[in-house]
Amino acid sequence: MERLQKLLAAAGVASRRKAERLILEGRVTVDGRRVTRLGEKADPSRSKIMVDGRLLEAEPKTYILLNKPKGPITSVSDPQHRPVVTDLVQEVKVSLRPVGRLDAATEGLLLLTNDGQLAYRLTHPRWGVEKVYQAEVSRRPNAAALRRLRGGIALAEGKTPPARARMIPRRSGHALVEITIHTGWRRQVRRMLEAVGCPVMSLRRVQLGPIKLGNLPRGKWRRLNPAEVRTLWKAVAEPRKAQSAADREPVRTNRVTRPARRQDVQTRIRRGDLPTKTRTR
Ligand code: URA
Question: Is residue 181 lining ligand 1, measured as CB closer than 6 Å?
């Protein structure tokens, strides 16, 4: 459910301000009922929204892969006027939200979408989607430190769930550690490495579930193709089995909407709203 004026603006009917005027002028109906006051919400996938008798086209589901540079915060707006990640995808005229968070100083793979159901599952620990990070560290972790990273590190929230950790061979420069986690605690990778005496100098996310950053240049974005969107839905088809209390712990997410129920997903597949092998966006 979203405010009507926001839906009208997102569908490109008018600016948010002008959309409010359209509502106040009684030119908008929801399922045949004229709406004349601001603040009403509607779900365009369930209701028929019309402006001057013309049906509002639902915003197409859009999935963007951004190689976030250092700097912008993972948000859609900021009261302190700091740069935000959506500044980098301004050409995409739909209301995108980032999927999860990266610190301002972290770079790499960030998905942005207007598909709230998928975003919810990708970020909620119940689905435990794996995230792969590569960290340049000022001190090379020894075998014992790698074992600790894998086995769990005591942080303020509790012990981190089992992770994968390995060194990436490099000819020169700082040591590079790759860590795979499925939780999203605040600054988790930085704090894990700090705890084993290897502070992070730079951090990059290279993979989220089945999606890899690849060679997308820093600051650039591309649309996911339908096959990639299908692999994401497949990755969150079933909740992950909780292995420890930490796995069940809720984290702050950029939740867009309530979780999809199995029935919703099936309805969307029937409607052709979810990508299938033949459908492209
Ligand atoms: N872990 C961190 O420490 N920072 C991030 O941005 C993501 C994971």
Answer: no
